[in-house]
Amino acid sequence: MSEIRHGTVEELLALRDGEGSAWVREHVAGCAACAGELLRLEQVRAQLRALPAFAPPRDRWPVVREAARGQRVRRRIWTGSSLVAAAAMVVLALAVVRRPAPAAPEDAALQQAMAESATMEQLLRSLHPDRRALTGQTAGVVAELEDQLADVDAALNDTVTWRRDPDQVAALWKQRAGLLSALVDVHETRVSVAGL
Amino acid sequence: MADTLPLAEAKSLVARARAGDLSALEHLYRAYERPVYTLARRLTRTADDAEDVLQETFLEVCRSLKQWRGEGSLWGWIRTVAASKAMMRYRREKLRQWEPLEDNVAQRAGDVPLQLDLEAALARLSDRSRAVVWLHDVEGYTHEEIAELMGMTTSFSKSQLARAHERLRQWLGEGVQT
Q: Helix %, strand %, coil % for chain B, to 5?
């Protein structure tokens, strides 16, 4: 007489998780031992899920807070130095890529975009955006604009952009001025509406 | 675990934190501090390791907040970061020292378990078995996800889970106590 084959734990776990084979499903329907084992596996899972949460013995928030502050400062420094580097590269690009003869119209456009960007940056700084409390929606807009600004700065800081497509540089500076202008708008609105 | 923050609130807090609002970041930290630590505690060997994973997780969250676009649960995203940090630590430890394939009987130092029998039985599992059981049965990870996270095959994850349940049955049946 052959021995009855029962479901293995792996097969029963698969069944518990909704993936069991047709054979094990049929077998469990008629086998009290395997049905009992399946129930036990379900109970253990329920008990595991009901275990209480642990509370960290020490508060690690001060470390995280200081790191977050440091990141923000580094980001500002990076953006500022990126601007300086980009400005230096404008000089280089104009000297190397452009002809020395009378300024081409695109050079004038570049100079104008850079000047606009500088003006907007100065205006934004005067509004002290880092000292303001923002609502969630406004903060979302600001974060999105700052992310885009960081992307533009990264592109301006990339030498490949300058070598491959010098004309794109003016467009990037224009985009930068536009993003800064939008940030000024957001913060100016906060000042006028909320008086913050 | 269900997300402790409603999605709209999570989105708002993340946006503010991304804009540099430290109070919003602290709100996020406080909301997920315990779930992250609990997960880390289950996936690492000691309470100190779990604390380090908690810190590393939130440092990574600070750096990468812009990657969460609000399309899925914030807890799901933070949990993935935490599990990855814990597994990196596990892999480092594994390189440093030999881990028995069989589940051990060593006690884990640190916390006082509140449900003695199941806690004690969990503690007797090897780090790898405990991680598989916790990720699959509690956190709801699939075997494919566990395999990817832990650098093993799907079938190995399945057999680890089965082996761990066999051990738990044996130990819970013995009335394991600390």
A: 70, 0, 30
In a domain, A3, yes or no: no
Residue B121's nearest CA partner among A8, A47, A36, A55 is A47
Q: Is the pTM of this model over 0.90?
A: no
Question: What values do phi and psi take at B29, rounded to 5?
Answer: -60, -50
The second-level CATH assignment, the architecture, of B100-178 is: Orthogonal Bundle (1.10)
**Per-residue pLDDT at A71 exceeds 90:** no
Residue type, B143: H
From CA B125, how far away is CA B160, in angstroms rounded?
11
Identify whether the C-beta of residue B43 lies closer than 8 Å to the C-beta of residue B51. no
User: B66 at the A interface (CB within 8 A)?
Assistant: yes
For residue range A12-58, list pLDDT tens digits in order: 999 999 988 999 999 999 999 999 999 999 999 999 999 999 999 99
The CA-based angle B44-B49-B54, given to 5 degrees, is: 95
Q: Count how many domains chain A has.
A: 2
Chain A nearest-CA residue for B167: A9
Q: Is B145 on the interface with A (CB under 8 A)?
A: no
Using an 8 Å CB-CB cutoff, list chain B residues near A146. 18-19
Q: Based on the domain organization, do A129 and A81 belong to the same domain?
A: yes
- Decide if B17 contacts B25 (C-beta within 8 A): yes
Domain extent at residue A112: 61-194
- Helix, strand, coil in percent for chain A, rounding step 5: 80, 0, 20
Q: How near does any CA of chain B get to the CA of A86, in Å?
A: 24
Claim to verify: residue A158 and residue A84 sit in the same structural domain: yes
